[in-house]
Amino acid sequence: MTARTDPAARRRSSRWFAPRDVFGFIHRAALRAEGLSNAAISDRPVIGVCTSWSELVNCNLHLQGLAQAVKRGVWQAGGLPLEFPTMSLGENLMKPTTMLYRNLMSMDVEETIRSNPLDAVVLLGGCDKTVPAQLMGAASVDVPAIALTGGPMQPACFRGRRLGAGTDLWRYTDDLRAGRMSPDEYAELEAAATPSIGHCSEMGTASTMASLVEALGFSLPGSAAIPAVDARRAALAEATGRRAVLLAQEGLRPSDILTPQAFDNAITVLVAIGGSTNAILHLIAIAGRVGHELPLNRFDEVARQTPLLVNVSPAGEYLFEDVFRAGGIPALLRELEPLLSLDAPTVTGQTLGANVAEAVVHDQDVIRPLANPIKPPGGLAVLRGTLAPGGAVIKTSAASSELLRHRGRAVVFEDIDDIIDRIDDPVLSVDASSVLVLRNAGPKGAPGMPEWGMLPIPRKLLEQGVTDMVRISDARMSGTGFGTVVLHVTPESAVGGPLHVVENGDAIELDVDARRLDLCVPADEIKRRLARKPLPAPRYRRGYGSIYLEHVLQADAGVDFDVLRRAPGEVAETDPYGVLEGWITGW
Predict the structure, then answer these.
(1) What's the whole-model pTM score?
(2) Could you give the domains of the chain?
(3) 481: enclosing H helix or E strand
(4) Which of 63-67, 312-316, 581-585 is predicted with the least confidence, judged by mean pLDDT?
């Protein structure tokens, strides 16, 4: 029986393993060398287990164990699991920023899937950029895929108080800088801050992306919030492996799941959870990989009708594991039903509405009813104006309400080194009404758009009791961050946006209700300044860095590479560059 007449030939992997010729021999022998028998190889869907496990990434360290659970599930359902590693991105250790490498990791995921005999893939990720990178890669190659995130770490406990891994760190660091905390106390905090494996325990970017993966319909219901150390996460990993085998048989692809309605659902959840602004960039990038335009204004439109329902730090009081206790993301989705597209398809084979039909909220202080939100609609806002003609974003749910309409004089920092050198200088000309401005921190300028946007409050103002100021940059901010922080200013400084020519003392006006961010300088003067101020030289001239600078797009396009976005209506190429027939079926 030939590969063309065998029913299994419909599977992608059969093009490698079914032919009874030298090529099939070589491919089967490669797995025989791993100790697999013919019974393990023959007539089984091959399921890739894509893991970003790394000892350089503490919040992904447990993915090895989850991979074993996924593989059990694959075997249970009659598939052949093959685990493979990819690049791993860790927020804490990787410099200058993981965002510089998100697109590279996505390419690693995409090309590994495309070039190997995989019928479906389970994506195992945890830390902030690993999850969107995996989704971007899987969406690009469009082989059936399902995601499983790693879950939040155990909460820290410091002097009897539960802490988030990042949000409380920023507050205590301000206390240290202001002299309200001793170095010894700070060292005690360090010992307590990260008590287990898993990603950040508040609604940082990792928790946000885990929630949005579920809202997109790309993971099994209830998967986002199970703590990393909870045995139920391993049981869910088994179920994910079983479902991956069915996905391979059904042929349900990422492009079937990642519809415009799914992205609207994800944006709704993003606002309802008070999620990270980083997710805006990631959702735009993922949408671009399946050929959907997701304009920045769509986030503002959805946010205007979506209230804050999830009471989790930094926009609320609790931690992400409390969301699990309260019913998880399915319970939140059930509360949000009037605002969602419930007929959106999901990896379960059922609609989003069917997935959450039986969900129940167990703690209405953690997940509020739609009729009794924590805050009204508008937790995210997209700003435009003479300082951000291409757009900027602000997370109003974590900002100070009294600063959402503000006019102040700019205090400008050229780059991160300038902040480090001058922010605590006693002679810095700054007061509580000033607007702190950072430039050269965007996709090309930094490069990589690091999480430098939550500029520190100058020490002399901390000592006076100032806890928030308007801060503006072309950078990003950690999802654990907070404050009246305007981010993702587009065009960025390094490509000649107006941010490039802001001067100390210039008046800047922020008006969130009007969705405006303006440099109060005549347009002709801005134009003259831009004409006479040269742009910075590229930071990289060789290697991946130079490729990044050549191809990276601005924040309003998700900071993806221009060559990786798919045109509307363009079909993904799932074969390795269309050469399978020539290389596999014979000479």
Answers:
(1) 0.95
(2) 1-43 (no CATH), 46-153+198-355 (no CATH), 157-192 (no CATH), 380-532 (3.50.30.80)
(3) none
(4) 581-585
